[in-house]
Amino acid sequence: MAVVAVVLLAGVGVGLSRLFTAGGSTAGVSNNSHSTSLASVTRRDLSSQTELSATLGYAGSYTVLYQSVATSGTGGAGSGGSSATFTYLPAVGQVVDQGQTLYDVNGIPVLLLYGPTPAYRSLSEGATGADVAELNADLVALGYVTTSEIPADSDEFSYWTEVGVNKLQAVIGATQTGTLALGQAVFVPTAARVTSLTAILGGPAQSGTPVLDATSTSPQVSIDLDATQESEVKVGDKVTITLPNNQTTPGMIASVGTVATTPSSSSSSDSSASSSASTTPTITVLVTPTDPAATGSWDQASVNVTITTGSVANALVVPVDALLALSGGGYAVEVVNTAGVHSLVPVTLGLFDDADGLVQVTSSKLADGQRVVVPAT
Known about the structure:
There is one protein chain. The chain has helices at residues 12-19, 130-141, 159-172, 272-278, and strands at residues 7-8, 36-40, 42-58, 62-65, 86-88, 95-96, 101-105, 108-114, 185-188, 192-197, 210-215, 219-226, 238-242, 248-256, 282-289, 301-319, 324-325, 331-336, 342-353, 358-362, 371-375. It is mostly beta strands. The chain folds into 2 domains: 1-58 and 220-377, Elongation Factor Tu (Ef-tu), domain 3 (Beta Barrel), CATH 2.40.30.170; 62-215, Muramoyl-pentapeptide Carboxypeptidase, domain 1. A hairpin with a 5-residue loop joins strand 13 (238-242) and strand 14 (248-256). Helix 2 packs across helix 3. The two termini are 25 Å apart.
């Protein structure tokens, strides 16, 4: 439940003498020490919303390492020693898809293939495992073999896998060995969007060293949520993303972190307020935009996310700042009738909409269209 700022009456006697006077003006409360105005009680559908700052980027991040135990004689991209040289590198921001060249070593392309298991060995007939299964799926997806030749989910390097590898090697101009040598392909989960280069064009390719960093091409919004608000959000909650150009687009919470982290203060000279804010434990909440194309090409851009955490139909609603906290407990609103007479009406609180500053209230003495006192704006 959201924290609500309300006006606390110092005492029932004092509160009544200050709040109510006969014949009070409809422009506000007569003799009140604070300037006030009036707002209407309405009946409407209400959503509980929380607005948060967030960052728009791309899902996933990974570092591509150069790996090779192959020699040029086996169709590989070099031995990884001093004779191996980067002869082509992609540009930052470039997207490399399945079956395309990610980089070249000694003029031999290193292909990008899809799969969560990274390459760690050469693959040849008789091998089995998760890396073989993703190779088989890639060969089918690229059209080098058919599903009748390699059934779905097959994790065996079969005769048809060898046929597919030979076709792949022919396309990239490598020697057709039927063996996918370590260093001939890089496995990543999806298409790679290059974010930075570590390798240098013309520089040495040393096995095990970083070549580049990349992300997926799927937009994703990341929220550092105050850990105390974890119970207010859940996977599947609908959100509205406000982009840097003030356009909005819908999304949905994809994951809610379970481990809170505490950032360290930026410097010892920070004020106590900023230092406290920087060390507040947070959890990571990830949001997937419903229409990825609507998010444009922004990367690491500041956005706002309005999270819908609940809803209620045909609710009686007042502004949050109409609420008065009673000294004996509970809440009330100050109602002004058509004659200008003020009365205090106790209410039971329901759903809060933090984004619009509204709250659901229940009372047998409150109705749609009545006017309540609020602080003047």
